[in-house]
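User: I'm preparing a small set of examples for a lab meeting where we compare how different chains pack in three dimensions. I only have the primary sequence for this one, and I'd like the structure in C-alpha cell form so I can line it up with the others. Please keep the answer compact; I'll paste it straight into my notes.
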Amino acid sequence: MSGPPVPGRTADGSGPPSSSAPRALFEIYDEGFACDTWGGVETALWSLAEGLRAHGVQADFYLSSEGADLEALAERVARERTDAVFPLVESALFRGDQWRRLPALHRRVARIWHDVSHLTSDLTTPPPCPAHTPGAAPAQDAGCPATPAHPDGPMREVFLRDLPWTRCFPDRTYIPWAADHLPAESLRDVGGPVVIQLGKTPVEDAERCLTRLLEARLPVRVVFATWSRQGRAARELVHERAASGGIEVFDTYDIRTDWKRVYGGARLFVLPSVFHETFNFAAAEAVQLGLPVATLGDCGALPGFASLTAATIGDLMDRVVAEGASVRPLPRSLTGWDEVAHRYARLITTTGDRARHEEAQCRT
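Assistant: Understood. Below is the C-alpha cell output for the 364-residue chain.
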C-alpha cells in the first residue's frame, strides 16, 4: 500500500477535483490513517477509497470531530457538490431525529452498517423483526425494533450481506467487503502456533481458551481486539500468563506491514466472539493467507470464514486441540476491492442523481 491519503485532498492530492467526476465524502476517526493500530473500519475505508479513485470517483475524507458540526458538514457537501456522504455508523447524524433538520445533506447520506450498535446495545445478533420478516415470532411489542434507527429516513443503507434484521430498511443495498488488500499466500504451518484473538468474549472465557491450549502444550500467539473493554482485560490476563512461557504476545500490530509476523507459520486462527460480526477482517485476512479459522457458531458473518465452529467455548477449544492441525482452510473469496469499489461507484452516482432530482421537484 502507498502512504495514507490526506483528508480534504483530491484523488492524487494535487489540486481541485474535476467538476464532472462523482464525489464521495467519508468520515474517518480522528486518528486518521496514521494510526498503527487501525482495524476493520480503517482497512475498509482506505481500500474502498483507493478503488473508487481507480473508477473515476473523487473520494475525500473528514474527521469525526469535524463531522460533529452537522451544519458545517452540510455546507461542505453543498459547496463541493458532493454526491454521497458516508458517516461512521456511530455518527451524531444518526441520533434522534437529526436527519430531519438538514434534508439536503441527508438525501446524500449512505449508512454502512459495520456494526449493529443502533439495534443492540450489547452488539449481539438483532432479533428478526416481526413486522418485516415472514414467519418471525411476534414479540410482546409487535412494532419494528429498528424504529430508533429511522428506517423511514432519507438515508440509503448499505449492509454487508442479506440478513433478517436488515429487511426493516426499505432503501437498502448489499455490498460486501473484500480481503485482497493482502496478497493471496499460503503461510500455514500445521506444526506452528495457534493464533488467537481475544477481547470479544468475557475475560473468563479468554482464560479458558488459554488454559486449554497450554494444557495441550500448543504454542500460542495472541492478538487483541483492542477497542473493547474485554480486550483490555484479556491483555492483562495474557501478560500474567505469558511470564510462564509458551505465549507470544502482539499488543499492537499494523496489518499493512505486520501480516506475516501475525499469521506467518501458524496452524490456524481462533476467534471466539459473542458479538454479531457484520464482517470480520481478521478472519477474512487469515483465509486470504491460507489459514483455517475456528470460531463460535452464532456470531454473524464470522462463521462464514470458519473451518471449525462450535456452540460453546469449551467445545470450540476441544475441536481446536483435536482437529486444528488437520482441518483445511476455506477457499479465498472471489470478491475483490475492485468489484466492491465498482458497486459503490454506482451507488454514489445514483445517490447524487436522486438527490438532485428530488431537489428539482421541491423547487417546482
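A couple of notes for your slides: The chain is about 30% helix and 15% strand. Residues 310 and 316 are 5 Å apart (CA to CA).

User: Perfect, thanks.
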